[in-house]
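Hi, here's the filled form for the chain we discussed.

Project: internal
Contact: R.S.
Residues: 127
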Amino acid sequence: MNSRAETIADIDRQLSNRFIELDPNGYFIIYLDREAGLICAKHFSNMIDDRGLAVDPDTGKPIPARGKVDRTAVQIFTARTAKELCIKIFETAKPCPVSQLGHAAYLGREFLRAEQALIVDDEYVQD
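And the returned structure, exactly as it came back:
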C-alpha cells in the first residue's frame, strides 16, 4: 500500500470509531448477491432509547452492533449500482426510510464500497 492509501485508511479507521447519532427510522445491513450481480440493503426498524441506543421496537431490548441478530427486515432494496440503490431508497421509497443526512451520506459511501467490491470481485464488509 502506498503512503497516500495508508493515510486514507488511517483516517477512515479513526473516523469509524467516533460517536454517531443513530437514525430513529432504522438501520441497514448491506451485502452483495454476487450471483445476481446486485448490491442489497435490508432495512430494519428500531427505536432510540434515552441512552441513545437502538432498541428493537417489539421487545425494547438493545440491538447489538456486532454478531447475528434474528430480526425481520422491514424492506429489502436491491440494485445493480450504488447510484441506482440510492435513487430507490432516497427518491422512490415513500416514506423515505432514512431521516438523517449523516445516515444518508454513510449509506452512499457504503454503497460505493459495495459496488467497487462487486466490480473487482473483492470481499465487502460493511463499516
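Let me know if anything looks off before we file it.
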